[in-house]
Design brief:
alpha/beta; Adenylosuccinate Synthetase, Chain A, domain 1; Adenylosuccinate Synthetase, subunit A, domain 2; 3 domains; 20 strands; binds guanosine-5'-diphosphate; binds 6-O-phosphoryl inosine monophosphate; binds magnesium ion
């Protein structure tokens, strides 16, 4: 088995971290390929909870190699903080964490610009995580970005920061009425970070391709989700990268023909954090009930997540865009307590049935969900470990989702812990 890709199939926070952790056992390399520390991936081992923002969740298994690919934007301060957090928990990253020299860096002015841009948008804000993700990708695309590999040459690095800041400082001062950043101080701080992480910096492209050619199993860990994809999501209420399966090739440096399985992780319902349309979003009281049952608070910013029913229109879009070969459904246990569960099977727009997931958010925000209603099973699934033992009503719900999405469900998660997993 060469390369496998796992992606978030909704608006992020589907439980990717948990599923990655479960699949790491059968993998040799775990690779992040896009996004940055805007992600928050939770893994629960026994009663201990770990939250990873930048380092692949596979790091929690001994002997696995973890890669931060070229498509990721790296805030070195956040990376060092995460390495220290892992050290405190007796998890070593020495010799098993590789950071691409091509990955772009996040600087303090990216974070500042992220926040200032949001303030300026006011009502129309995206609700970003404020981690500087968008502005760092802007620099990459306008070709003034500075890469992780640049940290290894002091003179080159200082020259590039100077050139970049001559533009970004002007933006901060003249447009956003902010203080300019001190170039010398910034260079010194970042070279200090470089010194700390230099042993991890490599050209990860040959590393990964050699591994694949030797028959090692490489698992790509998507961050965010399909509906946050800058091309296929609810633009402009999206992130600035491609969290979809194609992103694994670009952001990891492997050919599409190397990919065998593409697993889409869905929550058994839907959540979203940040602004933007959300057709199946529940009215306040029910929204609160799902939020409290599912403990739906952001792993990165702590913001309450918006909650809604499962949306098969999104599901079908996600299957198509990613080429999903199978599905994982998480948080089934959260639905244990609902006497009625709904699934959106179609949208109505101005009275007409919509065939495809709309590309325009103004259309999407006027779409009315058409629901099928399922009776709840009203019994605990947390302790169940085989598909056969699931309540009939839960199986009916799962069967209908697989049928609507025309894709088999491979994994069902009935709790946050590793062992609370059903392989179908
Ligand atoms: P990610 O960003 O996709 O990795 O997801 P997050 O970690 O942000 O959010 C998922 C949350 O759900 C975390 O708190 C997980 O511990 C938790 N979780 C994952 N799977 C399950 C499950 O099957 N049942 C329950 N109750 N919690 C789960
Ligand atoms: P994981 O990997 C959920 C959302 C933000 C905002 C939008 C843009 O844990 O699933 P950004 O800071 O990326 O420019 O914000 O994207 N967002 C996420 N929502 N889970 C995430 O990551 C997210 N990463 C970004 O809330 O709406
Ligand atoms: Mg998350």
């Amino acid at each position: 088995m060469p390369a496998n890709v796992l992606v978030g199939a909704q608006w992020g926070d589907e439980g990717k971290g948990k599923i990655i952790d479960v699949l790491t056992e059968q993998s040799d390399y775990i690779v992040r390929f896009q996004g940055g520390n805007n992600a928050g991936h939770t893994v629960k081992i026994g009663e201990e909870e770990f939250i990873l923002h930048l380092i692949p969740s596979g790091i929690l298994h001994e002997g696995k190699k973890c890669v931060i690919g070229n498509g990721v934007v790296v805030d070195p301060a956040a990376l060092i903080e995460e390495i220290e957090y892992l050290h405190e928990k007796n998890i070593s990253v020495d010799g098993n964490l590789f950071v691409s020299d091509r990955a772009h860096l996040i600087f303090p002015y990216h974070r500042l610009l992220d926040i200032k841009k949001e303030e300026r948008k006011g009502e129309g804000k995206i609700g970003t995580t404020g981690r500087g993700i968008g502005p760092s990708y802007v620099d990459k695309m306008t070709r003034i970005g500075i890469r992780v590999g640049d940290l290894l040459d002091k003179d080159v690095f200082a020259r590039k920061v100077r050139a970049n800041l001559s533009e970004n400082n002007e933006l901060l001062v003249k447009v956003y009425e902010s203080e300019p950043l001190d170039v010398d101080q910034l260079v010194e701080t970042y070279l200090g970070y470089g010194e700390k992480i230099k042993d991890h910096i490599v050209n990860t492209v040959p590393l990964l391709n050699k591994a694949i050619n030797q028959g090692k199993v490489v698992l790509f860990e998507g961050a965010q989700g399909t509906l946050l994809d800058v091309d296929y999501g609810t633009y402009p209420f999206v992130t600035s990268s491609n969290p979809t399966a194609g992103g694994a090739c670009v952001g990891g440096g492997i050919g599409p023909n190397k990919i065998e399985n593409i697993l889409g992780v869905f929550k058994a319902y839907t959540t979203r954090v940040g602004e933007g349309p959300f057709p199946t979003e529940l009215p306040e009281e029910m929204n609160k009930k799902v939020r409290e049952e599912g403990q739906e608070y952001g792993a990165t910013t702590g913001r309450p997540r918006r909650c809604g029913w499962f949306d098969a229109m999104i599901g079908k879009h996600s299957v198509m865009i990613n080429g999903l070969t199978s599905l994982a459904l998480t948080k089934m246990d959260i639905l244990d307590k609902f006497d009625e569960i709904k699934v959106c099977v179609a949208y109505k727009y101005k009275g007409e049935t919509v065939e495809d997931f709309p590309s325009n958010v103004d259309v999407l925000s006027q779409c009315e969900p058409v629901y099928e209603t399922f009776p709840g099973w009203l019994e605990s699934t947390e302790g169940i470990r085989s598909y056969d033992k699931l309540p009939e009503k839960a199986k009916n719900y799962l069967t209908r989702i697989a049928q609507l999405l025309e894709t088999p469900i491979e994994i069902i998660s009935v709790g946050a812990r590793r062992d609370q997993t059903i392989f179908v």
